[in-house]
Amino acid sequence: MTTEAAKKRIEELTDQINEHNYKYYVQAMPSISDYEFDMLLEDLNKLEKEYPEFADENSPTKRVGGDVVKEFKSVRHKYPMLSLGNTYSEEELTEFDNRVKKIIGDNIEYVCELKFDGVAIGLTYIEGKLSQAITRGDGEKGDDVTTNVRTIKSIPLQLKGNDFPKEFEIRGEIFLPIKTFEKTNAERIEIGETPFANPRNSAAGTLKMQDSSIVAKRGLDSFLYFLYGKDLPFKTHYESLKKAKEWGFKISPHMQRCKTLYEVFNFIKEWGKERENLPYDIDGVVIKVNSYQQQNELGFTSKTPRWAIAYKFKAESVATELLSVSYQVGRTGAITPVANLKPVLLAGTTLKRASLYNADQIAKLDLRVGDIVFVEKGGEIIPKITGVDFSKRTSMHQLKYIENCPECGTALIRKEGEAIHYCPNELGCPPQIKGRMEHFASRKAMDIDGLGIETIELLFDAGLIHNIADFFYLNKEQLLSLERVGDKSADNLIKGIEDSKKIPFERVLYGMGIRYVGETVAKKLALHFKTIDAIENACLEDLLQTEEIGDKIAESIIEYFKDKRNLEIVERLKQAGLQMEIHPDSIKQPVSDKLKGLSFVISGTFEKHSRDELKILIELHGGKNQSGVTSKTTYLIAGEEAGPSKLEKAESLKIKIINEDDFIQMFQ
Ligand code: IVH
User: Is 227 a pocket residue for ligand 1 (Cβ < 6 Å)?
Assistant: First the structure.
């Protein structure tokens, strides 16, 4: 292929992929299969590798992320990011309407939109390309999160059509759909992270992550709702959004032009009910004056536009008695206080419990047992207590947060800067032990058939198992001694345990339940260190050399192996015959074929990887290693003090010379 042809093909593929992306993520109407889509993406990936000079920063291949940002740049907003005035009642909305009409008269049209409960974002497009994405920050300055925003599939990197302004900003909301939020939380709980309280916090947390490849996997979505720019070619807001939709932005279909306040109230009423059926959270309705000219006449107060207002839904709330507070202990030892309530009906369900989150929340509410409390079901999935009816208070006794674990009696700890109390007795506290065992036996870890939480509880309560290593020393008689375990299930369980001894090392490592060591981290550790002994003996610096491992994970691994009891468990797992070294096939097993057909020569020393690691990476991604430069070499990866003869030969054969970062880019 000539360079010219490659350039053209890259452009064609980019357009095609962008169009399919739009059909899938914005219109929810895909026209090709996932497989066909992946093939197109792969073709583009390969061409961009071969011709990096044509790889655009807005290429759809950038959607998978990979760039890591240590600190987000603070950037001044071109147009301050204001918030909106809030109202909760029809009266206040009528006052807003009166204020508007007083200035611009009766001839008015409003646009009603949903008020999405996410994180506000400002996207700047220059010549149709996404150039910058900034968070609200303090309204004057926000964080540049462009790298992360590029991974959000419903945000166009390249606009469609050709009638967009040369430069403009579009504002909107980034959010996490409820289903995706639930999945994210389940995963967080699994690796011992505190779950997010609601989809909004989850979206905010995700947008500020340093590693964009994790953001890419989280499933953030967007709705855009306002345009800024010099001399925008529109007369009305409605028109601007219709055009923005044509350019490829995700614009909510649920908006309506209203001539009267009556229509506005109806829109609000309708969505007050319908919101339950939306796959994302909304917390109200936004009402905007449609005409740009009228918007200009109305102008702004110091904080908010006078031409728009947010009507916020009141969360449904009831009053009931707080009977008691109980404390739950999770697999990681995190304590969750739960309010036990006198049963009461709220939004169609009988409520008996509400989350209290943590000690600070209890103190803030100044709760006492016997209080009449207000309970709300807002955006949060679990109902929460929002306040106390102090006029009805009879109890004198302030609630005192527990100091000891309700399950094992150990004194609780609270790490600096964290809101949550933990029971530190990881190896002696029953729910923690049982939780860890359940995790160990789970599908993604050891995948032991027939070993669910019920069986684990039976075995644990009978005193037959105390930690994960004990599974491998159980015999059939012991199992038969348990209630509800017959001959067949005992055999199955023994077989399941035996079979699990073949489970590869990276999954054993994941199953061990070291805090913050999830599936991906376990894989990276296994690949880097190769044996459990090497991980056990690694110091902090060694661990930090591993891809994707930062301070928090490294410290947690060091902590784990400092404890003699853990060392004993590991030793017994080894004795039992589990895989404690990476299988040579796992090393060779390709992770991707992004480097397929490419041959590499490595010369010199490198910052991030050793030469051996680079060689493994090449093979892992389907490439070939060569010892010397020949006409068949595709790239010479040159580090510090690369051999001059290799460099010369590469130059004379016109072979591309790249550095370590260029190389890493190729498969990330
Ligand atoms: S218009 C000057 N429209 O709610 C125009 N905002 O409480 C300002 N929001 O700052 C924004 N949905 O973060 C607008 N359809 C919508 C919205 C919306 C959610 C957010 C936005 C805003 C906040 C105000």
Answer: no
Residues 6+ apart with CB under 8 A from 409: none
Best residue among 88, 112, 173 to mutate for probing ligand 1's pocket (most ligand atoms within 8 Å of CB) is: 173
**What's the pLDDT band for 328 if we cut at 50, 70, 90?**
very high
Q: How far is CA 555 from CA 539, 541, 544, in A?
A: 9, 10, 9
- In angstroms, the CA 626 to CA 630 distance is 9
Indicate if 505-585 has the same CATH topology as 430-502. Answer: yes
CATH code, 589-665: 3.40.50.10190
Q: Which residues lie across from 142 on neighbouring strands?
A: 75
Amino acid at 497: I
Cβ of residue 225 lying under 6 Å from some atom of ligand 1: yes
Which whole-number Å values give the CA distances from 653 to 633, 636, 656, in the listed order? 9, 11, 9
At 133-178, the pLDDT tens digits run 999 999 999 999 999 999 999 999 999 999 999 999 999 999 999 9
Q: Is 173 in the pocket of ligand 1 (CB under 6 A)?
A: yes
- Return the CATH architecture of domain 430-502: Orthogonal Bundle (1.10)
Give the CA distances from residue 260 to residues 273, 386, 552, in Å, rounded to whole numbers and listed in that order: 21, 35, 56
Whether 203 lines ligand 1, by a CB cut-off of 6 Å, is: no
- The single residue listed with the structure tokens 């994180």 is 119
- With 70 as the cut, is the pLDDT of residue 381 above it? no
- Which positions are annotated as active-site residues? 115
Query: How many angstroms does the Cα of residue 81 sit away from the middle of ligand 1?
Result: 10
Nearest ligand 1 atom, CA 117: 19
Is the pLDDT at 7 greater than 80, yes or no?
yes
- Is 310's pLDDT higher than 90? yes
The span from the CA of 402 to the CA of 380, in Å, is 25
**DSSP character at residue 650:** H
| Closest to 24 measured CA to CA, from 10, 45, 46, 40 | 40
The ranges assigned to domains in the chain are: 3-64, 74-268+275-311, 315-420, 430-502, 505-585, 589-665
CATH classification (class only), 74-268+275-311: alpha beta
Superfamily of domain 505-585: 5' to 3' exonuclease, C-terminal subdomain (1.10.150.20)
Summarize pLDDT for 520-540 with one digit per residue, the tens: 889 889 988 999 999 999 999
Cβ atoms 553, 528 nearer than 8 A: no
Q: Is 398 exposed, middle or buried (0-12, 13-18, 19+ CB in 10 A)?
A: exposed
> How far is residue 403's CA from residue 409's CA, in Å, rounded to a whole number?
9
CA 278-282-283 angle, to 5 degrees, is 145
Tell how far the Cα of 504 is from the centroid of ligand 1, in angstroms: 49
Ligand 1 centroid–CA 113 distance in Å is 9
Residue 563 has φ and ψ, to the nearest 5°, of: -85, 120
Residue type, 29: M
Tell me whether strands 256-258 and 110-116 are parallel, antiparallel or unpaired. Answer: antiparallel
Please list the residues that pair with 319 across neighbouring strands. 374
Mean per-residue pLDDT for 84-97?
A: 94
- Work out the end-to-end distance of the chain between its first and last CA atoms, rounded to an integer number of angstroms: 25
Ligand 1: does its nearest atom lie under 6 Å from the Cβ of 310?
A: yes
